[in-house]
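Morning F.,

Quick status update on the modeling queue. The single chain you submitted on Monday has been processed. Sequence for confirmation:
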Amino acid sequence: MRIFIGLFVFLFVSTQLTAQVIDPDLLKNTNSIILDNSITINTNNSNGYEMIVEVKTLLLNKNAKDEANITIPYDHFSSAEFIQGAIKDKHGEIIKKIKKKDFSDYSAVSGFSLFEDSRALHYSYEPVAYPVIIEYTFKIKNKHTFFTYFFSPIEKYGQSVLQAKFVINSEPDKAFHYKSFGTSDPQIIKNSDQTSYIWEFNDMLALKWEPFAVDINSIRKGVLVAPVDFEYEGFAGSNESWVSLGNWIHQLQEGRHDLPESAKTDLKKISETYQESYERAKAIYEYMQSKTRYVSIQLGIGGFQPFDAKTVHELGYGDCKALTNYTQALMKEAGIESYYTLVKAGTNAYNFEESFTANQFNHVILCLPFDNDTVWMECTNQQIPFGFLGDFTDNRPALLIKENASALVKTPRYDNQHNHSYSTALLTLEPNGNARINMERSHKGLHYDNISYYPSLEPRDIKKRLGNGSGWKNYTIDQVQIAVEKSRIPQIALSYQVDVLALGTTSGSRIFIPASPMTTYEVAVPKVRSRQTPFAIYQDEIYSDTLFIKLPEGYYLEQSVDSLMLESAFGLFIRDIKVKEDQLVVIRTLNLNSGRWEADQYDAFYDFREKINRYDQQKLILVKKE
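Structure tokens below.
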């Protein structure tokens, strides 16, 4: 290690990056070191703001190769300007000067986002040797003052920081929200023409990625900022409260609910057929799904204002805003109240600062407040059941838009009774250890979400997925049948037959078979020594299986097996094995709890899961009667 430290100190001095001795701790768990990261936001012009980005990064190994790429985002209301850049070797010699012509321009649409007119300039470089340095400067000019920005010098696990600075220069009377995380409040410098907010960061150690790692945004140091008052393409708004932000979103929808006569005629027929509000809303939702498809589009003021409902009906497509606005218009025409709702979408994207009023959202869904019930609708997915969100938008804050009454609410949380996989199987065992298994398996809630695409697969692909993780070496799957129930808590049922060679191993008059041959959930977790970061499980889940093992004629269980129950903060495991004439009945239940735990609790988590894994790996010994 001393050799490497010396190398890096020499590297820094020889390239005139810094004259200070680098703390050896900055090299621990590190794939790259941010030598300098300076971001300045200038909001001196009330008609817009600019961001100047200066970055200098030392890439230590191939795990940091993506950091040799440069992406500069922009959209219809902003412009991107690359200023300068270079790639340098470990001696500080320039390998390549980066020029504007080296960048490609492409669409950066996410596929679901609230911001659907995004583009980016992109430069890609593949290092041939390490260490290597990349440094660059670019500027983004925006024609509006609506933004929410989270600055953190550390952007990913395995990255450390030598020094970084974040500066906001604003008009003296322009107010800002800001919230610091793990760092002090800014230095504030005021003069007659400008107020500057300055945050500085030095010697930030890398965070090591570890199994079940939490979202890095929830543990890294940084600062969240947003202007209190803003303007976007002539629409003025305020982040003073969730109500004021909601009013701004509401005004963007005004006048965009008109429908063509053909749509009104269709809705009249639906209303005549379905008198009860819930059933009528379900029919309207399915009508919308049959009429539209998701497409990224831009209109009006780009990422915030939706297509009007009439246009969506006539074209048959829209983005998340347009399709949600259109569905709301359909509901309104049918006399059903609904609310356009902003949400931060994405699997495990639960990190949200409820006390920080600003746009932290990237998606739109629809909320229907029925008496004694609330129904949520994802309008961009033509296959999802009515009232089901899935893990894309579940269990997180959302801003329900209502004129002068917008408020943060919570989307549904699917607990372990909802996220349930259960099976019943008959395993017929032969004296040579071969087996035939007739399986009935059902998946509910978020477990349905995980395999909802199965009906669209080719039969051979379904069979492959059903066998994955089984541990069987030689098997064939046949007679596969799938049934889908698209209810509020949807369910997919699978039935199939499996022929397995050598499921059991034989030795003389004995057959050894696994106690849990049908387990599909990977219980074992990696061992982590001296864990440093918190860990999380994001879903409550239940896996329950009942397996009937029909024994070969003349065989019996050599030794009785005690019932098992393991209980901890992380879940509950129960296994019971009973003998009924010529059958063994194996009942197994695994109940997993969601939660977030500190690093020092990982050993207990590992022990809990490892005990379950050992019990699953146990062998049942069958012996033939003499």
